[in-house]
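Please, structure for the following, as tokens.
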Amino acid sequence: MRVLKNAGRGLAAGCFVLAGSSAAFAGAWDTLGIGSSELLFAPEEFVVEGSVTYVDRNVDYVSTNATATDGPLKTRATPNIWNYQGAMKFAITDSADCLARFNNPLSIEEDMDPNWRGRFSGYETQAKAFAIDATCSYKFQVGEGRFIRAIAGAKAQHLSYYSKGAHSSGAAAEVDLRADGLDYGWRVGVAYEVPAYAMRASLIYDSQIESKLDGDTSVGGSKVYDSVASLTLPQSVELNVQSGIAPGWLVSAGVKWVDWSVIDVLSVDSADPATGTSAGETVHRKLNFKDGWTVKAGIGHALTEQLSVGSSLQWDRGVGGSYSDTYTLGLGGSYAANKNVKFTLGTAAIYKTSGSGDANNIASGTVSEYDYDSSWAFAVNTKVRLSF
């Protein structure tokens, strides 16, 4: 039993480093993916870790129904992106633990050629969230070597949205909106643990977050409208299981559901900044997202007391539009420089299936539909962990 327990401790980082490698393709705006709260279960009394993920993306849009007849038919749509996270776990008592972290949990970035045929529906989008959250747990013994952990937490998030497209005059039309302060949500969960076998099953629910944004719409660099919008960011449910299967071996599996279908329309209401006269909807994009599902399985192996390696497979259901199904193979490992410092490195190959979507703005009557072929993307994740 002790062999399996110690193996589980050493393998946790090596197996779950892969979550960061593939999470940046975890369905629509979600950048956290499966296993982002694993640090809460770390056996050490105090742990600090930071991670960075880089994703090299490769998706080209081909306009199929654009109102403009000039400009290129095809454009690269997805810039390469960075994702980050910092977290700290600390034990309050032998039974109580807390996790605090910051990250950018939601992100969408599109950057097309400003002259492509679909430019009147948009050629640049940046929607990002900065979040901080705190999660605590309390562990109850329910039998010899068996425990149930109650989990609860709160989260605060700031959302921003920026988009740019071509105005009928040929000038750039820009929408720049930000939340007025932080928006709040909550988290609850439960876990069952048998440490002697490195076995754990956890179920965590994250609530919706309501966000109201305000800013302006400008044409050619001059402000034209005061603009406002509201958005419901989706709830999610995540189930994770892991277990030692032999000395030095750990397997894991997880599934995550995200309620992306709650985002049906992106609507921006505007008014004349001088008179306050309403201009109605200046942006009305039908998104028609469907719920996202992510399924992941991994295996880790401790080669030595210092070195662990792991591999994972993941499928993510596309939610619609430019977000089609992805299949990810991840490889990674961790190296313990000493008992307090551990480095991890993960890489992932991500296959994205072909699909189609649109950037139709019903408010202006602009129509831009596109197709995209299947493609490959690649990710690299690094993490540094300090524990005491």
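Confidence is low (pLDDT under 50) at residues 1-25. The two ends are 24 Å apart (CA to CA).
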